[in-house]
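input
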Amino acid sequence: MAQRVITVTQLNRYVKALFSENKLLNEMMVQGEISNFIRHYKSGHLYFTLKDKESSIKAVMFRGDAQFLQFQPENGMAVIVTGAVTLYERDGSYQIYVKQIQPDGIGTLYLAFEQLKEKLSREGLFAPEQKRPLPKYPEKIGIVTSEGAAALQDMLRILARRAPSVRILLSPAQVQGEGAAESLIEGLLRLRKTDCDIIIIGRGGGSMEDLWAFNDEKLARTIASSPIPVVSAVGHETDFTIADFAADLRAPTPSAAAELAVPNTADVLYYLDSLWDSCYIRMQQNLKEKERRLQELKRHLVTPMGVLEQETQRFHFVQHRVFLSMQRRLDLSEVCLREAGKRVTFSMEQKLCRSRERLQNAARLIEASSPVRLLERGYCGVMKEGKAVSSISDVTEGDQLVTQVADGSIFSQVTGRKKKYYNKEENRHGKTDDPGRSH
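output
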């Protein structure tokens, strides 16, 4: 009988169908350790290998299922996965399509709590230097919790007993279940817009699932960034949440939060009484010291006449010093005045000498240029009808002229004129080549 020949694809499809028909393989819980873990950056699918000491199997968890994980899978983590085992046709290898993952030996919520706690701690969100001290004497306290919770009544009762003058602002919020974290964040944000001195956020005890809203990352960041100091009061003394680490102060219970938020009025009054007693004693001591000092001053007090004599002596002393000072100033001023007079006199004499010299020089110049001097030196002046003759064109034949000389006047008549000509060559040497012509 001849055997039927099939392709590799047909074989893989046949084996895959066998996997699909097996009900046990369609919903299998497998225990192992995660290795080669990869979260695809685009699709969001998770790819990893599930192994034990002797074997391994490939596993994939699609994004639609991975988004509901409450913790972050990591290499080396022991887990129990739930899913369907099937064949991947292309490679001919079988793998498990994971629907759920839970830690093996540790609760899912606890693992998620530890991972978030470690993440925020690395960021410095829980650092001690980030914590702010609570005001000693708050006037207004805000509370974020369920409106009908017994924990709220406990806090209100304690606050009324310890500090009846403190005002309370309640910001109601859902404290468990779906949407509780968002409700708590809204309650915090409402109180941040008020003038509260302290905010208390919390609730009564419960299981880890009941308190899970206080382990929300966004709530923790809202608490840490609050401008108003926050006191976390969640559950019982042994309960810890992420909100406890993010808050400025963690109270073991809501009642303890009320105790820590405000001072006891009775204690404050006792402290004020003690301060009053201490101030009264100090005041009495100061009065006695002042009285003793007054008596001592009285013993050294002088009579009015003695005071007058002291002031008179002081007046004479000051008067004498003023007189000496004025005398020194007068002497100095007199010396300065004499010196200034000498300088002025000397300056005036210098100016007079210079003026006299300039006057003498000017007189010599005037005398040297005097017409009389010119006449004495042989020069003469010719006048025609009272006007000076400076050119032959000023006279004609027959004109009567008066010649002025040093010792008198000469009267004459013009009988002719002669003009002098110069050529360019001899003019440069002061000579003429033409004796002139008579007119």
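quick obs: The two ends are 177 Å apart (CA to CA).
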